[in-house]
Amino acid sequence: MAIAAPEKSPKRELARKMFDTLLAGVPLVGGPLAALYSVTHPAKGEVDQEKWQKEVTDLLNSFEEAIGFLTESISLSEDAAIIGKWMSEQSKDGWSDLFEYDKILKQFPEASQIEILEAVGELELEGMITVSKVLGKPFSHARATHKLFEVFDPIVFDDASPRADAAQIADMLLASDKGISAAQISEETSWSVRRLNPALAIVGEFIAPGRKSQPMGQPFIIRSMFVDGAERARLRRFVNEVNGE
Q1: In this predicted model, what pLDDT tens digit does every residue of 218-233 receive, in sequence order?
Q2: Any bridge partners for residue 142, and if so which?
Q3: Rounded distance, CA 241 to CA 133, Å?
Q4: In the chain, how many domains are there?
Q5: What is this structure's pTM?
Q6: C-alpha dihedral sign at 69, 72, 75, 78
């Protein structure tokens, strides 16, 4: 028996988010919902991207057909999407939350251990979680990566986009010659810790370890960061990509 379906199908919600994005003319590749696109579309080389987008565009005047097409295009199973959305909903700070194996089993009692393991395995395969192993059970706990929040936050929170937030942080960093701190970003944007951390993690992937500080007891995944010339160039490209420039 699979995980009991919630009132709203997460896969259908993801498809609706994609539909709205296409209607608005927002770029898919590299845009604010790039992570969602990566699980809504087969891997590069498996399908012609332009052909796929044309098939979707041809259906934009038929809402139900377009949503159905996009839902079928999502590579995640419904079980994996349900768990992924639940993790996004449950996360308190957007990076350090531990989702223990026993807690996941308790949350979805109607599913078998094998079904849970396969759903969690899908999220791990997509790079949305990291899993810690332990003797005596399939795994100890899972921890969400920024990709999980990139995919599911847009259907959990109104107008959420960690990638768009990351582009804004990157702009702030590029405007400074001394670097910036998470506390400064928080003060200037008024974003919660939960919103800020996934975006910080995205920006942090462009920066070498020696130029970004560890949490050290603070609630932010990165306390402060500064960049060299090559990192500036990569971040500039990232910002332009997200903004469709």
Answers
A1: 899 999 999 999 999 9
A2: 99, 131
A3: 37
A4: 3
A5: 0.89
A6: positive
DSSP string for 75-138:
-S-HHHHHHHHHHHHH-SSSSS--EEHHHHHHH-TTS-HHHHHHHHHHHHHTTSEEEEEETTEE
Evaluate whether residue 154 is within a structural domain: no
Range(s) of the domain holding residue 137: 78-148
- The single-letter code of the amino acid at 64 is E
CA distance 39 to 213: 31
For 51-64, the pLDDT digits (tens) are: 666 666 666 667 77
Residues 165 and 238 occupy one common structural domain: yes
In a domain, 52, yes or no: yes
CB 166 within 8 A of CB 202: yes
Q: Do 53 and 116 sit in the same domain of this protein? A: no
Task: Extract the tokens encoding 148.
Answer: 């999980």
**Pairwise CA distance, residues 191 & 185, whole Å:** 8
Q: Is residue 33 part of a domain?
A: yes
